[in-house]
Amino acid sequence: MIDFIDRWWQSYQFSNALKQGNIHLAERLLINRQNSGTRLTWLEKFFRDKLYLEQVNSESRQEVLALQQQLQQVSQQLEETKQSSRFHEPQSYRLQPNFQLINSISEQFELIQHDEYKLQCTGIDRHLFDEFEFTLVEYLKQELEKKSPLQLTKAIKEACYDIDRLKNGKDPNYNLDLTPHVYFIKYFLNNVYSAYIAWFLVYKSGLLPAKINILDIAAGPATMAYGLALLLQSFDSLLQIPQAHICYHSLEKQSSFQYRGLQFWRRYMEILPIATNSYFRFDTTDIFSEIENSQRFPESFFDFIVISHCFFSDSAQRLQSYRIFKNIFSTCLKQDGYVLLIVQGRKLFKLYNLPQTEDIAQELKLITQFLADLELNLEWYNYATSTGKRTPIKFELFAKFAKENLPTQKHMLNLAQKHLGIKHNLNYVLDDYIILAKKP
Known about the structure:
This protein has helices at residues 2-20, 23-36, 42-87, 99-108, 126-144, 149-163, 179-204, 223-238, 255-268, 315-332, 345-351, 360-373, 395-405, 410-420, and strands at 111-113, 118-121, 211-217, 245-252, 277-284, 302-308, 333-344, 377-385, 431-438. The chain is an alpha/beta fold. It has a 9-stranded mixed beta sheet with strand order 1-2-8-9-7-6-3-4-5, with helices on both faces. The relative contact order is 0.10.
């Protein structure tokens, strides 16, 4: 009976403590009840469970608070790392390929990847290239009008004779007064077209830096710079990207090419609403007579070294040029830099006395040998062709195909007919191996 009364009294005290809100007393009474081994009432059990849940909840809050503090510290460290990375951002920071942009350009240029290495191109960004072509024609008209008709006829004839040595497998001198003008009329637009595709493939591969240092060997009138600048214009019209900064070093024997190239750049590129930030250095140098070493260039500086359509037909000159090229590659290219080579399909096979072929294995063997001669390793290559074939087709068939399928040089045609006597249509045509390589 005494135990019953004692349990009742403890329960009464416990209930009364809860009614009065004296939680501390209630906790002490509960502890005493648990220590005595007495069976708890439903109210005491409820209070015990409540205290347990509150303790668990408190511990959980403390754990969450600790995790939040850790997360805040990590986020702060990450932000500081990002800020430091931006401050010390390397020149080779690369633009991330955008599939919408890639698909848009691929549709405009009607790009078809027939196999791993053969890329057909029959289209163009009509608005972009029309404006570019029209401005070029207007510039050439004004330049050609500076000469008397008699002087003009003679100078153009001499320049055409020099440049047409290419058709006979010989190397032109490119040193006559109107050689740049004839080059602009006959080859420039197609070579810029090819350069555009080459830089597009580099971008598509995720290898195009936003801040890019380029050494262009045998640069002519800066053809490769124009191709890149036009590609960046396409970016601006289709997608907002970080503004590109181009440091372009032109290495060219003929100062007249460099002068005319810079003249036209100032006339066209620098007046655009969104102009590419570009720094040009024009180095008028004969690589055979002056560059026996690369001490004149900064070491490990260039993201890209490019050579476009400058591979000598003469074997002795070619071997000598290869030796100089290799020295420049090894010294001036960044460790993660690339060499971009563009060589006409017919010429590449002719350099090795081989017929053009549709055999991919033979083609790959030739590319591998070509790069081995330059002491480079293959990253990738594409044969960019208008016809979709690796082997040439007869002129009559090509003329019919071009008329039906290829974009025309409608502004340049009248100038070419008037001064060069060209009787056929002018089209944007591709027949180039675009090769990306790295140092071993």
